Amino acid sequence: MPRRPPPDDDGPIASDLEKFGGVTQSCESCGTTLHDDVEICWKCGHALGTHPVKQVPMWVLITAGVLLAVFVLGMVLRAF
C-alpha cells in the first residue's frame, strides 16, 4: 500500500479560503483593487495605511525665498 505524503500545513484550508477569499481593499492612491493583507500596492507602490504627504506649493517656497533674501539684504545694507 503506497504511503501518502503529509498534508501541507503552510497553505490555507478550504474553509478559510471560502470565508476570507473575497476580501479586498482599494489603493488610496491609484484605486487598484488589492487583497486585504497587502501592505504595498503592486501597481503604484503606495504604502497602504499611510496618508500621502502633502507637498508645499512652489509659489510658497519662492515667496519665502524672496522674503528671506530681502530681509538679509536689508540687514547687510543697514550695517553699512
Question: What does this 3D model show about the protein?
Answer:
With 80 residues, the chain is mostly helical. It has one domain (14-79). 36% of the residues lie in helices and 8% in strands. It is rod-shaped, with a radius of gyration of 28 Å.
How would you summarize the topology of this molecule?
Elements: H1 14-20, E1 24-26, E2 33-35, H2 58-79
Antiparallel strand pairs: 1-2
Which structural traits does this protein have?
single chain; 80 residues; mainly alpha; two-stranded antiparallel ribbon; 2 helices; 36% helix; rod-shaped
Task: Assign a percent range to the helix content.
Answer: 25-40%
Tally of helical runs: 2
Work out the strand percent: 5-15%
- What is the count of β-strands? 2
Rounded to the nearest angstrom, the distance between the terminal CA atoms is 104 Å
Catalogue the unreliable spans: none
Mean pLDDT: 82
Q: Work out the count of structural domains.
A: 1
- How would a crystallographer describe the biggest sheet? 2 strands, antiparallel
Reading the helices and strands in chain order gives HEEH
Describe, in short, the structure shown.
The protein has 80 residues and is mainly alpha-helical.
